[in-house]
Amino acid sequence: MKILFDFFPIILFFVSFYQAKFLIEYTFIGSLINPERPEHINATIIATGIAIVASFIQVGYSWLKMHKIERMHIFSLALITVLGGITIVIGDPAFIQWKPTVLNWAFALGFFLSIFIGEKNLVERMMGGQLDLPDYVWTRLNLSWVAFFLISGVANLYVAFYYDLEAQPAVRMETWVDFKLFGLMGLTIIFVILQAFYLARFIQEEEEDQEQTGEQN
Description:
The radius of gyration is 21 Å and the shape is elongated. It has 9 helices and no strands. The chain has 2 domains: 92 residues, no CATH class; 125 residues, no CATH class. It is mainly α.
């Protein structure tokens, strides 16, 4: 459920991109769009605007519901407002296409620096209350997230600017929009599952140690 909440603006970006014609024809949004621009540019502008609104809703809901806002959501809101705003004003999708890469690389930097700042890295700070793991395991988990965010950022750039260069701009934009939702979400889900398998071994060992301690007592 949380992953859907985290991807809420991305999901709305995807839906509104592919429903742009409907929104132009049957809502007030049509009066705000320049009809002389290519359809895929207008669709991107509409989807970006809706994603910005969705990000504000996401942050506002977190504050009203839990009285706190995750740093990830705040940073994502700032990025989509700035880069998305530029895309809307000048009609260039490249700025909003850079947003997932900037976000992922910023996370990679944050996770990497956490190794040297404070007594615990970011993964241990988030999961240390539920799991008791050796220090080297926390380090491996943290570095794996660094690698994941770096790879995700590179993958986004590749799909946005280098994949299928011979295709029409509209087709390439659709490919990137599909990847932005299904590709990045799929990579995240697969990575989390792989980490769960890795952690399962240590959780099982911990349970066995607890059982042996109980038998000895």
